[in-house]
Write a structure and sequence with these properties.
Structural class: mainly alpha
Strand order of the largest sheet: 1-2
CATH topology: Arc Repressor Mutant, subunit A
CATH architecture: Orthogonal Bundle
Number of strands: 2
Order of helices and strands: HEHHEHH
Oligomer: single chain
CATH superfamily: Winged helix-like DNA-binding domain superfamily/Winged helix DNA-binding domain
CATH class: Mainly Alpha
Number of helices: 5
Shape: globular
Distance between the termini: 16 Å
Length: 107
DNA sequence: CTCTTGACGAAAC
DNA sequence: TGTTTCGCCAAGA
């Protein structure tokens, strides 16, 4: 657990149910607009029973970047929260635009 | 420190 | 418009 990962987890925990954001936006909110991969890396190392809602983080297009079963799981979880996907597998931009000052981690 | 990998993103073809 | 390349950053070997 590094400082960066801790900040990523704290931030992702603040994403409200039924809302989503992107790796790049998370990175930007953490003050590192070019560390999108770092966000993905941190989330990929979460344990199964984590309290971090990792499934609310998608790529910049609103699509799922996770291959395999885990990715389908993410899609199912999002649909369960009311997030709709179009035929291209991309989520609604209205749900995508979660990014505000109050979303920033305070500590 | 160097090299490699990845749940990224933007630019160039 | 779809695909490939390149840049970026975090972590681990």
């Amino acid at each position: 657990m590094t400082k960066f990962s801790a900040k990523v987890y704290k931030l992702v925990r603040r994403i409200p149910e039924g809302s989503i954001t992107s790796y790049g936006r998370c990175a930007a909110m953490l003050g590192k607009p070019r560390a999108a991969q770092g966000v993905g890396y941190a989330l990929s190392h979460l344990p199964e029973g984590t309290d971090v809602p990792w499934w609310r983080v998608v790529n910049y297009r609103g699509g799922i970047s996770i291959p395999g079963r885990k990715g389908r799981k993410q899609r199912a979880l999002l649909k369960g929260e009311g997030v709709e996907f179009d035929e291209r597998g991309e989520a609604s931009w209205e749900r995508f635009e979660w990014a505000s000052d109050e979303a920033l981690p305070r500590g």
